[in-house]
């Protein structure tokens, strides 16, 4: 199982202003441990601020690339971590929306956790889907035409594993498992 994702390239996208630390770093660590190659793309490239519990500044990390320089064709999956600042910034960024839409149209795995599904709304890919998220997004997702469910992980899409969503940091193990299963199948 350690190399179950060998040969799989996964893009994780964030803003530079802030992302929930564990929702960024734990998927990076777990999916790498399964053999995947991960690229962390941020809006501006360079330094990204992480937060704990959405309010406490934590360490900074370096992203690998700018979103505008990245293309869906180079990856097998897209991961969108949460944190209100991250999700709210990504949903207004043209390149983030472009990437989300490209991955969705290509039928590739798109995984979003916590507030990350906000970006799915603005990319125009939430309508008609069954999703989960941090509970405060329930009305936003419903208004965008999605069905909201309260589950640790929800899989939805034209191909069973196309869209994976989770609610909160406590769900990260299930979130990571679902991504690994989707790509390892």
Give the overall shape, derived from the CA principal axes: globular
**How many individual β-strands?**
12
> What is the CATH homology-level superfamily?
Class I glutamine amidotransferase (GATase) domain
Oligomeric state, counting identical vs distinct chains: single chain
Number of helices: 6
| Helical fraction | 25-40%
Distance linking N and C termini: 12 Å
Q: Rg, please? A: 14 Å
Mean pLDDT: 95
Largest sheet: 7 strands, mixed
Q: Please identify the top-level CATH class.
A: Alpha Beta
**Approximately how much beta-strand content do the residues carry?**
25-35%
Task: Give the CATH architecture.
Answer: 3-Layer(aba) Sandwich
Task: Extract low-pLDDT stretches.
Answer: none
Predict the CATH topology. Answer: Rossmann fold
Number of domains: 1
The strands making up the biggest β-sheet line up spatially as 6-3-1-7-8-12-11
Would you spell out the secondary-structure blueprint of this structure?
Elements: E1 9-14, E2 19-20, H1 21-33, E3 37-42, E4 47-52, E5 56-62, E6 65-66, E7 77-80, H2 84-90, H3 94-105, E8 109-113, H4 117-122, E9 130-131, H5 138-143, E10 147-148, E11 154-156, E12 163-166, H6 172-184
In short:
With 185 residues, the chain is of the alpha/beta class. The chain has a single domain, classed as Rossmann fold, CATH 3.40.50.880.
Describe this structure in words.
It comes from Pseudomonas putida. Belongs to the peptidase C56 family. InterPro entries: C56_PfpI-like (IPR006286), Class_I_gatase-like (IPR029062), DJ-1/PfpI (IPR002818). The chain contains six helices and twelve strands. It is of the alpha/beta class and 185 residues long. It has one domain (9-184): Class I glutamine amidotransferase (GATase) domain (Rossmann fold), CATH 3.40.50. It has a seven-stranded mixed sheet, with helices on both faces. It has a three-stranded mixed sheet with strand order 2-4-5. Helix 5 links the parallel strand 9 and strand 10. Helix 1 (21-33) runs parallel beside helix 6. The longest helix is centred in the first third of the chain and has 13 residues, at 21-33. It is globular. 51% of the residues are buried. The model has no long low-confidence stretch (mean pLDDT 95).
């Amino acid at each position: 199982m350690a190399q179950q994702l060998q040969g799989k390239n996964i893009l994780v996208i964030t803003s530079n202003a802030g992302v929930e630390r564990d929702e960024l770093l734990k998927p990076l660590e777990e999916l790498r441990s399964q053999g995947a190659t991960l690229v962390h793309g941020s809006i501006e490239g360079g330094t990204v601020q992480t937060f704990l519990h959405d309010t406490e500044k934590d360490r900074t990390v370096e992203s690998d690339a700018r979103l505008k320089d990245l293309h869906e064709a180079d990856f097998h999956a897209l991961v969108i971590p949460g944190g209100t600042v991250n999700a709210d910034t990504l949903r207004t960024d043209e390149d983030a929306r472009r990437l989300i839409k490209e991955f969705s149209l290509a039928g590739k795995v798109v995984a979003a956790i916590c507030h990350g599904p906000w970006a799915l709304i603005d990319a125009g890919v939430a309508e008609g889907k069954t999703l989960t998220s941090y509970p405060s997004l329930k009305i936003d997702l419903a208004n965008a035409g999605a069905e909201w469910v309260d589950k640790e992980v929800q899989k939805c899409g034209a191909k069973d594993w196309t869209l994976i969503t989770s609610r909160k940091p406590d769900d990260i193990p299930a979130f990571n498992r679902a991504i690994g299963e989707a790509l390892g199948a």
